Amino acid sequence: MKDIGWHAVARQFVGNAEPAGSSRSVFTLPGDEDGTQYPVIRNLFKLYPWEDLVSGDDRAEGDQEFGAFLVSDRGRLGRWYEPAWKMFLSNKLLLVALWRLFPGHENLLPAFADGPNGMTDFVVKPVFGREGDGIAVHRQDGSVTTNGSEYRRAGTGGERVWQQYHELPDFPGSRGHNHPVLGSWVVDGESFGVGIRESDGPITDYWCRFAPNVITAS
Fold first, then answer.
1. What's the pTM value of the predicted model, to 2 decimals?
2. Fewer C-beta neighbours within 10 Å, C or N terminus of the chain?
């Protein structure tokens, strides 16, 4: 990521060199050759996880460490899609914080950062995860269901989250089991769409089926 389209001196992402004075670009930097300029990229789309960008694992040399630069000079690079605040929502420790703030809430499950705390059916989750990687479902009978190795890390201090297990319903069809999980798109406090992800097993994974649904006025 640092080597493709990265202007090391200006510390900006740039496009391919173009003729100087080109009207195609609003923000530019001088090119390496006379009569050229680099268009500055002000809107960036990325799939690379934010927690990896700012963790220090994505490291260059000396003061070029990219994660530290993103934090210290975050306004320099324009707009990111998805934005950095999504990193907060993807942190599973948020589940622990919500349970501490609203214990017993009907829309929450008990969640802890220091062990199962008496729960007999629970799920152990890495702080950062992708598509069910590293998830382990522990049942009262001693059985454990897992979904492969952990995505990248458990957290800076090896943190885990223990959350009460809530069994998903199963709607078997002609091709096997279907365990659905619903997600809602909320705009200004109102749901405008839902997504249904169906997996073969109790852990939602890479191979789940996704069915978007739109809510319209009747």
1. 0.75
2. C
